């Protein structure tokens, strides 16, 4: 069950491979995410010291958050993956042109997980080509509906 999706990522990148990762969250963040108060639009993933971190994900705190907790909506959150997956991703990212992008947040057996994609950036002409293809598919579907 998807919570939020990063549609901009699929527009800006060719996604070659996806991985499901857990996220190290605080209690107030879990409550806010369950309430749907999260934004992945400006988020990105970095590799630092053999660990993978999610930066830029904005979680708006609920008004009922505890008084002794000082929430930071855009704090850096650690992603939880198996060591073998991390080593493989580090190797891929160090090659030219590859990056890691968060694609969505979803529930998996009651836990909040994120799908990250190993991606290569699209050029402007690739984006235009994808848009033309999408428009053609839409037009084709419309023509098929009219023929019936």
Automatic annotation (TrEMBL):
HAMAP family: SmpB. Required for rescue of stalled ribosomes mediated by trans-translation. Binds to transfer-messenger RNA (tmRNA), required for stable association of tmRNA with ribosomes. tmRNA and SmpB together mimic tRNA shape, replacing the anticodon stem-loop with SmpB. tmRNA is encoded by the ssrA gene; the 2 termini fold to resemble tRNA(Ala) and it encodes a 'tag peptide', a short internal open reading frame. During trans-translation Ala-aminoacylated tmRNA acts like a tRNA, entering the A-site of stalled ribosomes, displacing the stalled mRNA. Belongs to the SmpB family. Residues 126-148 have a biased composition (Basic and acidic residues). NCBIfam families: PRK05422.1, smpB. This is SsrA-binding protein. Keywords: Cytoplasm, RNA-binding. Its main location: cytoplasm. Signal peptide: none annotated. PANTHER family: SSRA-BINDING PROTEIN (PTHR30308:SF2), TMRNA-BINDING COMPONENT OF TRANS-TRANSLATION TAGGING COMPLEX (PTHR30308). InterPro entries: SmpB, SsrA-bd_prot, SsrA-bd_prot_CS. It is found in: Cytoplasm. Residues 123-148 are annotated as: Disordered. It comes from Tepidiphilus baoligensis. The keyword Cytoplasm applies. It holds the Pfam family SmpB. CDD domains: SmpB. The keyword Cell division does not apply. PROSITE patterns: SSRP (PS01317). It comes from the Bacteria.
């Amino acid at each position: 069950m998807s919570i939020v999706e990063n549609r901009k990522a699929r527009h800006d990148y060719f996604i070659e491979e996806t991985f499901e990762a857990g996220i190290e969250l605080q209690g107030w963040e879990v409550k806010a995410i369950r309430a749907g108060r999260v934004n992945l639009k400006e988020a990105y993933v970095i590799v630092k010291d053999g660990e993978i971190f999610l930066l830029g994900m904005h979680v708006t705190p609920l008004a009922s958050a505890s008084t002794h907790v000082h929430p930071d909506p855009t704090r850096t959150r650690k992603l939880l993956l198996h060591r073998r997956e991390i080593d493989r991703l580090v190797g891929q990212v160090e090659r030219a042109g590859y990056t890691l992008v968060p694609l969505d947040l979803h529930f998996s057996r009651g836990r909040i997980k994120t799908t990250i994609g190993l991606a290569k950036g699209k050029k402007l002409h690739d984006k235009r080509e994808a848009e033309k293809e999408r428009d053609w598919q839409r037009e084709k579907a419309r023509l098929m509906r009219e023929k019936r």
